[in-house]
Amino acid sequence: MTVVGPFGLSVRDQALEADVQAGLTAVEEGLLEVTKSEVPFITEAAQHLLRAGGKRFRPLLVMLAAQFGDPYAPGVVPSAVVVELTHLATLYHDDVMDEADARRGVPSANSRWGNSVAVLTGDFLFARASHTLADLGPEAVRIQAEAFERLVTGQILETAGPRDGRDPVEHYLDVLSGKTGSLVAVACRFGAMMSGADETVVDVLTQYGERLGVAFQLADDVLDIASDSRESGKTPGTDLREGIATLPVLRLRERAERLGLAEDIALCELLDSDLTDDARHAEALSLLRVHPALEQARRDTVRYAEEARAALVPLPECGAKAALVELVDAVVHRAG
What is the spatial distance between Cα 131 and Cα 138, in angstroms, rounded to a whole number? Predict the structure, then answer.
């Protein structure tokens, strides 16, 4: 039994383990190669987050999905490179929009070189992803373009907020489907498609990826409130401090509006105050950790995870399916 990928995924099938490890190694080499430029500074900036590490969650899904066809097919590794490059590019842009100081334990590109360099580096990575994608055929280009449109639409919807009369929770889940679910779905789709898997298998894995991607982000929302830094490796309450309304906060506000309880309203008012103040931030975090809204957010996470698990039912029993199920279990475990 070997641990690979994010969350300490255990692979018990030796042949599968070898395929996944070899695939991820090839993806890493491909990422380093495709981010090189004749201009040394561009190479440094483009490889900044790449060399800082990361879970490589999406390439792992490509490799597992490819097991339902020919995992050695020539398009598998390049498609994983495309998906991870796209993800990396969005991180450069996200950090500019969020004015983030750090990412993956290193200074963010925008804090190190300024917003202009960070945005242009993200654009460079998108360009290199498109160049690789062009060799995979027009269908792959269309799929990636549609996913990228959904990703950007999700980001815009998040910025704009819900329209009048729209349920904020439904709006938020739509945002996550676009921002996170779309690219995770493409990772599964590319892996299956490039391996020559049957079209019904491609569809099943695409649905799985969409739901797993949303569950993964919802688990992060729960962890931001519930975990301590020793468990998650992140500073608890980061989203709270930055005024980002994640699912536990949205569930709290929904409950406050529905029931009108004084303690819920008071907590909402605290969350709307300046949480850069350490004492207020600590109080808000403490109250949210024992609030029913956090448990509701956990249930929402589990629901999406279970939908991902259910999507896998039509697939034949094999090591890759077991690993995909274990990824669902890992997401649920992260959410507590």
Answer: 12
Q: Which of 78, 69, 65 shows the shortest CA–CA distance to 27? A: 78
Higher pLDDT, 90 or 204: 204
Over its C-alpha atoms, the chain yields an Rg (Å, rounded) of 20
Which SS3 state, helix, strand or coil, does residue 106 take? strand
Q: What is the pLDDT of residues 143-180, one digit of tens each?
A: 999 999 999 999 999 888 899 888 999 999 999 999 99
Tens digit of each residue's pLDDT (9 = 90 or more) over 214-261? 999 999 999 989 876 544 445 778 888 888 899 999 999 999 999 999
Cβ–Cβ contacts within 10 Å for residue 116, how many? Answer: 10
Measured CA to CA, the distance from residue 129 to residue 131 in angstroms comes to 5
How far is CA 249 from each of CA 90, 176, 294, rounded to the nearest angstrom? 25, 15, 8
Q: What is the pTM of this model?
A: 0.91
Longest dimension (CA), the chain: 62
For 98-149, what is each residue's pLDDT tens digit?
Answer: 776 777 778 787 888 888 888 999 999 999 999 999 999 999 999 999 999 9
> Nearest 5°: phi and psi at 3?
-95, 125
> Cβ(101)–Cβ(111) under 8 Å?
yes
Q: How far is 260 from 318, CA to CA, in rounded Å?
A: 51
H/E run at residue 118: helix 115-134
Contact between 74 and 136 under an 8 Å Cβ cutoff? The reply is no
Torsion angle of the four alpha carbons 11, 12, 14, 20, in this order, in degrees rounded to the nearest 10: -10
- Residue 123 pairs in a beta bridge with none
What span, in angstroms and rounded, lies between the C-alpha atoms of 320 and 53? 24
Which helix (H) or strand (E) segment holds residue 273: the answer is none
Give the C-alpha separation, 308 to 210, whole Å: 8
DSSP 132-165: HHHTT-HHHHHHHHHHHHHHHHHHHHHHH-PPTT
User: Hunting for tokens 């029931």 — which residue is that?
Assistant: 259
